[in-house]
Design brief:
Elements (H helix, E strand, L loop, with lengths): L2 H25 L3 H24 L5 H28 L3 H8 L1 H14 L3 H6 E3 L3 H13 L6 H15 L4 E3 L6 H20 L9 H26 L1
Antiparallel strand pairs: 1-2
Helix pairs in contact: 1-2, 1-3, 2-3, 2-7, 2-10, 3-4, 3-5, 3-7, 5-8, 7-8, 9-10
């Protein structure tokens, strides 16, 4: 076994485990924790691919594992979260409607995995499941401030946008710091705003994952600046 090739897979498995924990927290009515775990999954998902390219450790196994993790963390977990916070009053009908999201997400992932390499590297066809799941997590995180009808409409729209033919530019070639810094600042502000009176209610993983992600972004920022200085 090549240990170097397994390093990106550890981040992917961490993403998958966040999805599993999110479902558990949602089932126990800890919706804030469930939403935050999906966001942590997004952090890990943004790291595994870049680390694989950095280590020259991209493998077919890693690609398949990434898709399996994505369908759990950004498909199944958000749909359960929306069910428990929005659709639970509708009983089995609400559960069935919630199940549409991971179905559309799975189809979107399968279509992405079978798309020509040159096409998938320049743009996405349909909204990526990672973005869709993250949006649902944010909506449920601020569920008390957002009307249920708004979440319902966005949930329905995202389900269909994932399998649409909409062309969305890929950001794979964009240097990480520009977008990673924005994500990091957002997560830091999120902790201050949401957690200021409820320290300890979030899963403790957030207090580990956020500093690690900040260090990761700082490393890439320094690396990009260094490469520009040499040029």
């Amino acid at each position: 076994m090549n240990i170097k090739n397994q390093i990106p897979n550890l981040f992917t498995l961490g993403n998958l485990f966040c999805g599993f924990l999110s479902i558990g927290y949602a089932a126990n009515h800890q919706y804030t924790n469930a939403a935050v775990l999906i966001l942590i999954g997004m952090m890990l998902d943004s790291m595994d691919g870049r680390i694989a390219r950095m280590l020259h450790a991209e493998t077919p196994l890693g690609k398949e594992l990434d898709s399996l993790a994505d369908i759990v963390t950004f498909g199944v977990a958000p749909s359960f979260l929306v069910y428990y916070t929005i659709f639970f009053n509708n009983g089995l009908l609400g559960l069935a409607i919630s199940g549409l999201f991971p179905l559309f997400g799975a189809y979107r992932l399968a279509r992405f995995n079978t798309a020509p390499e040159d096409e998938s590297s320049t743009h996405f066809t349909g909204v990526p499941i990672t973005a869709a799941g993250g949006i649902l997590a944010l909506l449920t995180l601020f569920n008390n401030q957002i009307p249920s009808i708004v979440t319902t409409v966005i949930f329905t729209a995202l389900s269909f946008l994932m399998v649409s033919k909409l062309k969305i530019p890929s950001l794979k070639e964009v240097p990480l710091p520009k977008y990673g810094t924005i994500v990091t600042i957002f997560l830091g502000a999120l902790l201050v705003i949401v957690n200021i009176e409820s320290y300890g209610r979030f899963p403790y993983l957030i207090y580990i994952a956020t500093p690690i992600y900040i260090i990761y972004v700082a490393y890439w920022f320094i690396k990009v600046k260094g490469n520009k200085g040499k040029g």
